[in-house]
Amino acid sequence: MKPLFLGFGNAANVILKELEGYIQDFYYFDEKNITNSKGKKLDRFFIPNDCSFVIECASVEAVKEYYREIIIANKDFYILSTGAFADENFRNAFFRLLENSTSKVYIPSGAIGGIDVINAIKKYIEKVVLRTRKPPKAFSRDDKEKVLIFSGDSIEAIKKFPKNTNVSVTLALSVGDFRKVHVEIYSDPNVKKNIHEVEVVSSVGNYKFIFSNNPSNNPKTSLLAPLSLAALIKKNFENVKIGG
After folding, report:
1. Which of 100, 113, 151, 159 has the smallest CB count inside 10 Å?
2. Which residue ranges make up the annotated binding site?
3. Residues comprising the binding site for NAD(+)?
């Protein structure tokens, strides 16, 4: 396989390391002028003819800027910055364009798990609550005690914290209703890790998941997020698929 990385920072390097043995060669495009001796750098964004698929690990803005070229080129698209879908106008335009393409879009579970449970009981869900706690530096703050800095739905969460709340949008996409996911975000100096607590109430049963993630080299991002994308790519090339 020969993917094109859209964005080539820390997350891309984690994914590349995890896919060692799967990837023979790759392209990459990064507006920050990052260089890598192994891949072929693109000076401008375009889709090479021999590109197998596109892996986005740049930003919400990058998804919005380049999605049309990717979908029109009928390339499969792996998206890490799922916060782009909080924008209803963008979301509608994206899925309308996708209807006329052979592209498949893959959204990893990111910094949480339990998405297979949510997918299975989607139509029975009554509410979902996401509580996120991160060290103050993840929000560029210097709080000395735990502070609730946001409470609202997933759409408002991603607008106010676009670098921190891809998890809430991934949950909302899985649930199928952005207003059904309530989000609470805490700046907490007592935690050293990124902690996500997901509570699901449904007629099938009630579920609670807690994820205490080590941050990556970027304190705003959990290491689990790029690892989950790499696992999703591997899964698509395996003969036996386990889990939803």
Report:
1. 100
2. 111, 166
3. 111, 166
